[in-house]
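Course assignment 3, question 2. Fill in each field.
Student: A.L.
Task: Predict the tertiary structure for the chain below.
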Amino acid sequence: MKRETLKYIRALSLAPVTALYLVSAAAQAPTAPSAVPSASMSQGHLQKGTGGSGNMKQAMMMGMDSMQKMQVSGDIDKDFAMMMKMHHQQAVDMAQMELANGKSPEMKAMAKQIIAAQKKEIARFDRWLAKQK
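Answer field:
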């Protein structure tokens, strides 16, 4: 697979996450805690921590880092499935933080919908990837 194509796939898969990160960082900058959990903390720990936007930002950054470090296989379909699975899992993790710490009933309801939808898609990616081995 051409190097340019792989760069395009990476950029395309990271675009929504990067946009969300930038918006979140700008919105939370004045109120973000001065200390955020270290990158070595599990996302489960982040969900049980202080529950602030700093934790959500850290979880998002960890997810972006995982996608950037993923070794591409050269098979565009497989790489798409693997990257999208990571992307969807990150959405689930963020939605779970909202459920645990959010105050808005509307946002909590949306978080529940996101979790249900993304878990279904993750399962589809898992099934497809299992057939590729």
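Instructor remarks: The chain has one domain: 3-32+42-131. The two ends are 19 Å apart (CA to CA).
Grade: pending
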